[in-house]
Amino acid sequence: MQWRSVPYWVPSLFFAAVITLQGCSLAHVDDNLPYGVLNNNDLQLVEDGLPTYLLMVDGLIENWPESESLLSSGADLYGAYAGLFVEEPERARKLSNKALDYGFRAACAHHKDYCDLRSLSVPEFESLLDDAGKGDVPVLFSLGGAWAGYIQQNTSDWNAVAELGRVEAIMARIVALDEGYQYGQAHMYLGVLNSILPASLGGKPEQAKAHFEEAVLLSDGKNLLAQVLYAEKYARLVFDRELHDSLLNEVLAADPDVHGLTLQNTYAQQQAEALLADADDYF
């Protein structure tokens, strides 16, 4: 199974992580510090500085090992760093494994019924999600993102790939409970998951299209990454060059400076340029 290397969940996880850190009891840290990162348009600067966040979270978790918010931040940050900045496969797998471990620990800290999620049968897993409420959405989103990142870094392991259905179930439940959470990015995940395969091989491209359109709508067009993934994952899958180029050109024409989304949008515009540059070869 081969996935394109674009880490589609990474910017959304990073957004979640720094917002969570804002809510943690970090003495003498100004509330606007996380937005100094989220509103930064220099990806290199963020790459250079992100390890400091990782080490800070690791240290805090050592002191508060059952803190749901810190564990969720660890899951988000390690997943983001592994997917966005680490090119060496073995190191990326190691970091994504740590992200998933933090994700499971955060879920367990949130509710004791979530402590054995991975070992539950599919019916038990789905039943537990059916019982989830809106208050469970943040921890489920962090876990689902970390789990997706782990699978992407372990695509040669069919035991890992077989867990994709659980990630899809988590994101579908988030949509049912609070589809606007994080600018509708659960829809973005579902768009990607439904467009991994063409319809002839069991994929669901039309469902993917609907999810991408909802993600764009729920963000009022401000989340440029949703449009980039719509072009890459759906338009390329169905060989719709007109839609592909239209979406990407809209992204490049947009103002990326949106409070809390500037970093993510800068990354999206970078990806849009790359996709347009090789469009002639693809189509």
Total domains, how many?
2
Largest sheet: none
Low-confidence spans: pLDDT under 50, at least 5 residues? 1-6, 17-33
* CATH architect. name of the largest domain: Alpha Horseshoe
What Rg do the Cα atoms give? 18 Å
Distance between the amino and carboxyl termini: 22 Å
**Number of helices, counting only DSSP H or I runs of 4 residues or more:** 15
Which CATH first-tier class of the largest domain would you pick?
Answer: Mainly Alpha
Mean pLDDT: 85
How many beta-strand runs? 0
What is the string of helix and strand elements?
A: HHHHHHHHHHHHHHH
What name does CATH use for the topology of the largest domain? Serine Threonine Protein Phosphatase 5, Tetratricopeptide repeat
β-strand amount? under 5%
Category by helix and strand content: mainly alpha
CATH fourth-tier homologous superfamily of the largest domain: TRAP transporter T-component
Please state the overall shape, judged from the principal axes of the Cα atoms.
Answer: globular
Short description:
The protein has 283 residues and is mainly α. The chain is built from 15 helices and no strands.
Q: Can you characterise this structure?
A:
Mean pLDDT is 85; it is low at 1-6 and 17-33. This protein has two domains: 1-176, TRAP transporter T-component (Serine Threonine Protein Phosphatase 5, Tetratricopeptide repeat), CATH 1.25.40.920; 179-283, Serine Threonine Protein Phosphatase 5, Tetratricopeptide repeat. By secondary structure, it is mainly alpha-helical. The radius of gyration is 18 Å and the shape is globular. The protein has helices spanning 10-23, 33-38, 43-63, 68-84, 89-110, 122-130, 137-152, 158-161, 164-178, 185-193, 205-218, 224-235, 241-253, 262-277, 279-282. It contains 15 helices and no strands. Helix 10 (185-193) packs parallel to helix 12 (224-235).
